[in-house]
Amino acid sequence: MDTQGSQDTGGGRAAPAADDAGARPSAPGGATGGSERRPVSYADAGVDLEAADRSVAMLGDIVARASRPEVLGGIGGFGGLFAFDAARYREPVLVSSTDGVGTKVDLARQLGVLDTIGRDLVAMVVDDLAVTGAEPLFFNDYLSVGALDPDRVADLVRGIADGCAEAGCALVGGETAEHPGLLEADEFDLAGFGVGVVERDEILGPDRVAEGDVLIALPSSGLHSNGYSLVRRIVAGLDLRADHGLGAPLGEVLLTPTRIHTPDCLALIRHPEVAVHAFCHITGGGLPGNLPRVLPDHLGVRIDTGTWEWPAVVRWLAEQGPVADDEVWRTFNCGVGMVAVIPDSEVAGALEVLAERGVGAWVMGEVGARGVAGPVELA
Fold it and tell me: In this structure, what CATH number is given to the domain that contains residue 191?
């Protein structure tokens, strides 16, 4: 059972909670018997409350960068307050999503690069919200550490705040939990939860997709945050600081932050001359595993794989593994972070909107009748 401290930041970031059952010494204070034993403290269990206080003090300015006018109150509450104005909407629907970063965190730990992994976390959550057509409103994070180092925590939360600011949502709260005995001193994990809003009659999804619609690919920034268990197996024992022909250190390439597609998705949705039928966030499962989630049962997609090339890191991993092509397609995003499904008549307008935003999108396929090969045909 975790116990929670009394100091919060960002509307709910608490001083560390420790796993009492796993951390309690069998003989408090090192005593082996006798009638006198010194009192046991939280520090004896591995939890540093003074470090927690320092961490809380450091996070105020970081969290404040990721806010919105609807956020009420400041640092120190037990919950984040967000004044949702229903009058701004005709029939608002709240959308929630939660995710983590997976084993990419272990590469970040090994390389000591902690100020971008929080951005990965935000991207995985808010881009799922955007798939429904929702604007992300607020975000909460959960960070667990083996030992609380205020500087390391600040770096991790800084990445989360940066991601929230880019996505346009508020970081209204979070929890930092210290888990001595369960995690090594430098180990950590993090998860996030976000809420967005969309008008009921503007929810995107399979019911809008029609035969003849076109697939527009929005490029990924790299591997994003999926497939890292396979990545870690492939690179085990290799020098992560060498470039291995990639033009940059391998570790740096693997830790490239996930691109946050939400602002570009919202720009398409809000453009008066572009009708979006669906978005598909390309995460675990790749294109073959995710595109069926936004298609009606009777339709499939044909993807022209000749319209782009795999990123260098994907080709390198496939060769280094080696990894079979079909496994590559269903493990990695292969250069596509998000797919927009739109009517053929509006392709030019959509590509123009994205180009104006600096997004090098392209037409990658089309929607048609589902064939015997299944919902996704890679041609």
Answer: 3.30.1330.10
Query: What crossing angle do the helices spanning 117-131 and 150-167 adopt, rounded to 10°?
Result: 30
Contact yes or no for 293/280 (Cβ under 8 A): yes
Last residue of a domain, one of 182, 202, 222: 202
Residue 299's contacts (CB-CB under 8 Å, 6 or more residues apart) are 209, 210, 211, 367, 368, 369, 370, 375
- Looking at the structure, do residues 356 and 244 belong to the same domain, yes or no? yes
How many folded domains does the chain comprise?
Answer: 2
CB atoms under 10 Å from CB of 326, counted, come to: 11
Residues 221/335, Cβ–Cβ less than 8 Å: no
Task: Let me know: does 223 contact 332? Beta carbons within 8 Å.
Answer: yes
Contacts of 295 (CB under 8 A, 6+ apart): 206, 209, 301, 367, 370, 375
Write the pLDDT tens digit of every residue in 195-235.
Answer: 999 999 999 999 999 999 999 999 999 999 999 999 999 99
